[in-house]
């Protein structure tokens, strides 16, 4: 979704500078390459190795070309990251807000899809806060979100607030969830093993142990046999709280 961030002095967006309308610079561009393929490989590398390890040199090696060959198709690394970000948003399975489907179900679908995107591609969350996010796929998501929220019956002045409440929650939840999974993977542990290790370690610190003891009843009542189940329960409950909040605001005089 669109966020008002950007990187680099004087830089706006790859989508505003006419760069995506050309397949490459005129004449002499390397054969076997195109912007779509470069973007797809970029997404794959970011998924496999993370944002910190990504470089144009690493991308060129994966494509089996020179780094300069990539620059026939994109001017800067930031341009390419912005293209990859929008490509990731293109993988969402979104509802049609023009149907008669209840807005609550459509909101649950969009929120769940956004959460899965952030977990599947942990590099999306920092980039979503960096770039303008005005690529076609990001704009398509924003358009659907606005139309779903309009179906709630909220007054016009409450639309953006409702969107912020729901999707900033999902952004934070999905970001933390994705980072947790990434840390477990980096440690060579399953999510369950990593969670137990974290709890055992925390219990050895007096202040943390006291907090854990105070919340023992809450954690037990939380339910769920696995870390994933616990997270799903929390996400579902939190989202329902927001939906009930929207309903309550619609009913207010």
Written account of the structure:
With 253 residues, the protein is an all-alpha fold. The chain folds into two domains: 19-89, Homeodomain-like (Arc Repressor Mutant, subunit A, Orthogonal Bundle), CATH 1.10.10.60; 103-251, Tetracycline Repressor, domain 2, CATH 1.10.357.10. Helix content is 63%, strand content 0%. Helix 7 crosses helix 8 (159-186). The longest helix is centred in the C-terminal third of the chain and has 28 residues, at 159-186. It is flat and about 60 Å long.
List keywords for this structure.
single chain, 253 residues, mainly alpha, Arc Repressor Mutant, subunit A, Tetracycline Repressor, domain 2, 2 domains, 12 helices, 63% helix, 0% strand, disordered N terminus
Number of domains: 2
**What would CATH call the class of the largest domain?**
Mainly Alpha
Amino-to-carboxy terminus distance: 31 Å
User: What's the shape?
Assistant: flat
How many H/I helical runs? 12
CATH fold-type name of the largest domain? Tetracycline Repressor, domain 2
Helix fraction?
Answer: 55-70%
> Roughly how many Å is the radius of gyration?
21 Å
Mean pLDDT: 90
Low-confidence stretches: 2-6
The succession of helices and strands, N to C, reads HHHHHHHHHHHH
């Amino acid at each position: 979704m669109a966020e008002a961030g950007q990187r680099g002095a004087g830089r706006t967006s790859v989508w505003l500078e006419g760069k995506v309308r050309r397949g490459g610079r005129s004449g002499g561009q390397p054969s076997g390459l195109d912007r779509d393929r470069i973007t797809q490989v970029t997404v794959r590398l970011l998924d496999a190795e993370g944002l910190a390890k990504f470089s144009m040199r690493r991308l060129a090696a994966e494509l089996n070309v020179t780094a300069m060959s990539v620059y026939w198709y994109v001017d800067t690394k930031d341009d390419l990251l912005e293209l990859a970000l929008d490509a990731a948003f293109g993988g969402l399975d979104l509802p049609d807000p023009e149907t008669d489907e209840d807005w609550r179900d459509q909101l649950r679908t969009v929120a769940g899809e956004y959460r899965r995107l952030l977990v599947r591609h942990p590099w999306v969350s920092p980039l979503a806060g960096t770039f303008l996010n005005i690529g076609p796929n990001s704009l398509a998501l924003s358009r659907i979100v606005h139309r779903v929220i309009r179906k709630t019956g909220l007054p016009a002045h409450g639309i953006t607030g409702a969107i912020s409440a729901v999707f900033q929650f999902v952004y934070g939840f999905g970001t933390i969830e994705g980072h947790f999974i990434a840390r477990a993977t980096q440690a060579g542990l399953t999510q369950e093993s990593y969670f137990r290790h974290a709890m055992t370690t925390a219990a050895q610190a007096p202040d943390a142990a006291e907090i854990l003891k105070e919340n023992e009843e809450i954690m037990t009542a939380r339910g769920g046999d696995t870390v994933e189940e616990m997270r799903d329960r929390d996400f579902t409950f939190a989202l329902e709280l927001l939906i009930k909040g929207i309903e309550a605001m619609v009913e207010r005089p």
